[in-house]
Amino acid sequence: MTALEDPVFALDPAYVAHLRAERGLELRFIEDDDFEGYLHLLGQLTTVTPLTREAFSLILRRQRTQQSSCTLVLLADGRLVATAKVVIEDKLSRGGSRVARLEDVVVCAASRKGGFGRLVVEEAFRVAARAGAWRVNFAARAEAVTFYEHIADGRITRAKDQMYELVLGSWLQAGAGPQ
Fold first, then answer.
1. What total number of domains does the chain contain?
2. What's the 3-state SS for 20-73?
3. List of residues 6+ apart from 106 with CB closer than 8 A
4. CB 99, CB 121: distance < 8 Å
5. Tens of pLDDT along 102-155?
6. Which domain range does residue 62 map to?
């Protein structure tokens, strides 16, 4: 099964093809071969404890089989330049509705200000919507909130402390929906 055929998480093949043709970018779900590039990129966000290639592959296999999370990667010239993780939770308190959490958003320091963060976060929001989530929650440092506000056209609300949310319905109605 390919990433585009995943029954819960899906990338839009037309959007993926557009990025490849127009910008020479590859947008896809993370693969085992991304081990070194992903850990290097993640290390620009947080301290990464040692992880073997085998453990990395096991985690990715669990993501695919449990279908509760996915990690998007964006490559330029064959190297990983941005990533974002989407975690889906079925809420018993909300009649079984789904809520998404955005995690581990990172753009390679050498590639910042190139629009890569926007591309991967917008697609992460759309992946969450396609998976049935009505809201996306995420933590963000104060200096990063403007970045998310820009992507969501001002529809980000502060939930508490450094937690923010985007109600996908209003964002989708504004024309940013699943492509």
1. 1
2. HHHHCEEEEECCHHHHHHHHHHHCCCCCCCCCCHHHHHHHHHHHHHHCCEEEEE
3. 41, 42, 44, 45, 82, 83, 84
4. no
5. 999 999 999 999 999 999 999 999 999 999 999 999 999 888 999 999 999 889
6. 3-176
30-71 pLDDT tens trace: 999 999 999 999 999 999 999 999 999 999 999 988 889 999
CATH of the domain at 172: 3.40.630.30
Which residue type, as a one-letter code, is found at position 147? Answer: F
Structure tokens at 178: 């699943």
Q: Round to whole Å and give the CA distance between 130 and 178.
A: 7
What is the pLDDT, as a whole number, of residue 1?
39
135/169 Cα distance (integer angstroms): 8
